[in-house]
Write a structure and sequence with these properties.
By secondary structure, the protein is an alpha/beta fold. About 45% of the residues lie in helices and about 15% in strands. The protein has a 4-stranded mixed β-sheet with strand order 1-2-4-3. This is Endoribonuclease YbeY.
């Protein structure tokens, strides 16, 4: 099914083709290429607005995920009954925030890919509210990014490497 990648911001130049190619590979690795997925790139103002509405946090952030299928167990692939339900949901990438957080030696498009992978894991039921949940999510991200790195010749590390985020 389709991957819709929209750039709704002008703060940071964004080439969608490299990101699309890597996300298509990530979808293949996760076995969810038959599901629709929306990735929307926004600036700080818009990601902060969405974060305030849905998480009651009035700050910009890197990624917000909105699953189509709620209550999935971590790593569970949805089993839709109807064709219209072959949808994973939407990921909002705070590309301006991500760009501002990038370190000098980091490739912006690599970090976008890692962040989108993190968001995709959330759409598949992974969370990081507890240490145990974080460990599961970290391991899945690590596995996916290692395979992506193998296929593309990059060296990507999970977004949550070395961190426990209880939010």
């Amino acid at each position: 099914m389709s991957l819709v990648l929209r750039n709704l911001q002008r703060a940071i130049p964004l080439r969608r083709v490299p990101l699309r190619k890597k996300i298509e590979i990530v979808r293949n690795i996760l076995g969810v290429q038959k599901f629709d997925l929306g990735i929307i790139c926004v600036d700080n103002k818009n990601i902060q607005h969405i974060n305030r509405i849905y998480r009651e946090k009035n700050i910009p952030t890197d990624v917000l995920s909105f699953p189509f299928h709620e209550n999935l167990k971590a790593g569970e692939i949805p089993q839709p009954d109807f064709p219209d339900d072959y949808n994973l949901g939407d990921i909002f990438l705070g590309v301006e925030y991500i760009f501002q957080q990038c370190k000098e030696n980091e490739d912006y498009y690599d970090i976008l890919t890692v962040t989108a992978t993190h968001g995709l894991c959330h759409l598949l039921g992974f969370t990081h509210s507890t240490e145990a949940e974080w460990q599961k999510m970290y391991q899945k991200e690590k596995q996916v990014l290692e395979e992506l790195s193998r296929r593309t010749g990059t060296r990507l590390q999970p977004l949550s490497r070395g961190l426990f985020w209880p939010w």
